[in-house]
Amino acid sequence: MSIIDTLSDGWVVTQRNLIKIKRVPEVLVFVLLSPIMFVLLFAFVFGGAIDPPGSVNYKEWLICGIFAQTVVFGATFSGAALAEDMTKGIIDRFRSLPMSRSAVLIGRTGSDVVYNVISLVIMALTGLLVGWRIRGGVLDAILAALLLLVFAYAISWIMAFVGLLVPSVDVINNASFMVIMPLTFVSNAFVPTESFSGVLRTLVVWNPVSTLTQAARELFGNTGGVDAPGDWPMQHPELYTCLWIVGILLVFVPLSVRQYRLTSSKG
Question: How many helices (H) and strands (E) does the chain have?
């Protein structure tokens, strides 16, 4: 099949996944309430205990970290949904249709992007209500949102691969939580980089979630006028994050497609 046919099939699968919002409204409730909960929790519970660098207040400094955490967690839908489809035999039904093998994965990861767009909009509105402001230009703000979404899209392919390896919704949910939770908390998403020391600080500054957060803060203008730490990833957060995105896609897109074919062939 041509690339156009593959993308067309992928869009059909994306629509199929999005229709699930109407049939299972709990999915939309999670997408809407989860970012609101994190914004309010960290802004009002921890806001008085953490002092961000520079002149920015914690609520404004925090939002970009919440953005990064939420889109990364939103990328786990792909793995859980694929595991569920495998359990219910839906993957076997897809295999019997005259469609591209990669279309199922393209559609599944594409629907994650839609979920994350909704989450970003809800978080931005909630952030504006609690005191967050966009201090940079409109173009920079758009670039920040795109970087967040593209990074999450790359993570979706990792989760898709894991979901095909572990055909159980419970297992993929637990596995993704065990990996993503420390990845987001051992970062500068919620506390300044200066709060860490030694090996832990090294992990933080080279953590792609940290550079994603730093890039978003710089593009949204939420750094408080303080320069980034002198480490190379933090000095070039956009470039470093993009390198991770490219690397993840180059590795996990072909791996996921190959695993999908191997998994399907068992039917």
Answer: 12, 0
**Is the Cβ–Cβ distance between 110 and 11 less than 8 Å?**
yes
> Which amino acid appears at position 228 of this protein?
A
Q: Where are the domains of the chain?
A: 3-265
pLDDT value for 1: 58
Cα separations (Å) of 102 from 3, 4, 96, 172, 260?
A: 10, 12, 14, 21, 8
Query: Would you state the pLDDT for residue 167?
Result: 64
pLDDT of residue 26: 65
CA distance readout (Å), 180 to 71, 92, 172: 11, 30, 12
User: Residue 264: pLDDT band by 50, 70, 90 thresholds?
Assistant: low
**Helix, coil or strand: residue 222:** coil
What is the predicted pLDDT for the residue at 68?
Answer: 92
DSSP code string of 224-247:
TTPPPPSSHHHHSHHHHHHHHHHH
Structural tokens at position 227 = 């320069």
Distance (Å) of CA 219 to CA 30, 135, 165, 244: 28, 8, 37, 18
> Tens of pLDDT along 209-237?
999 999 999 999 988 777 788 889 999 99
Question: Which contacts (CB < 8 Å, 24+ apart) does range 242-247 have?
Answer: 242/147, 244/151, 244/154, 244/208, 244/211, 245/150, 245/151, 245/154
